Amino acid sequence: xxxxxxxxxxxxxxxxxxxxxxxxxxxxxxxxxxxxxxxxxxxxxxxxxxxxxxxxxxxxxxxxxxxxxxxxxxxxxxxxxxxxxxxxxxxxxxxxxxxxxxxxxxxxxxxxxxxxxxxxxxxxxxxxxxxxxxxxxxxxxxxxxxxxxxxxxxxxxxxxxxxxxxxxxxxxxxxxxxxxxxxxxxxxxxxxxxxxxxxxxxxxxxxxxxxxxxxxxxxxxxxxxxxxxxxxxxxxxxxxxxxxxxxxxxxxxxxxxxxxxxxxxxxxxxxxxxxxxxxxxxxxxxxxxxxxxxxxxxxxxxxxxxxxxxxxxxxxxxxxxxxxxxxxxxxxxxxxxxxxxxxxxx
Length: 346
Prior knowledge:
By secondary structure, the chain is of the alpha+beta class. The protein is 47% helix and 20% strand. The strands form two sheets. The protein has a six-stranded antiparallel beta sheet with strand order 3-2-1-6-5-4. It has a five-stranded mixed beta sheet with strand order 7-8-9-11-10.
């Protein structure tokens, strides 16, 4: 039979693991883990300290209550208490190592260092703390779990910030390469003595469509899957749109596919005067293929208006696809409609 104290130790490790698994921010996860540690090890207080932004060996309290805001080690104390990797049990004030962080000063407390100098857990207890082989193993496992939880939460935050930065750059590029160009055409026409009213109207309409489309994207929740994303865009089109396809893709591919479909549908109705559009897609484990075909008037791609005329839609679609390692190609001819073909690696 497994001894009760062993079962208790394993249960403590399991509960702390569950507390650290989640999508919450690090303070929430750390507070939950500290609560489980207090209950499992019969601790009175527990606080997590992480390195100060100015560097070691100053630690600031990150989670937990009833402890000092800051722990300051001298070089020797830091080497002994933190970089050794082993828990240290202290009695009385123990000012020889670091100032007692509890008020009133705890009579029985310990320092549990985390992996790779990530920080320390400071805990106090009502009774003397004894570290036998079992409790030492449990404490070591708890330290490893907290270290992993801190690293995971930080990585999650960095990934979120990276995703937000990518989207910010995308929006900035669209404003610069799309909206700004359309408005530049409009301004140039207005500055002429005899402005081309049709070109001016087209530039203003294109800028208006771009702004409205981006505002709709920002105001709406991201579709849960590829079909929902395409259907949501198709419903906004003035043309009759049929969607056929199967398979799923990741969030970035879904977003890109929806934007390419939106641009293709906008061109189909605004320029090609299409009445019917067919969207076909197939997503496998490693590839997404999508086609948007309309029955509009078509055009000669070689003679299509370019960047200098403020027509950035086709260029933006191609650049979006290439930014994710794919391609977006447009096939058309006068009176034969237009096909937009997109493929992306998954």
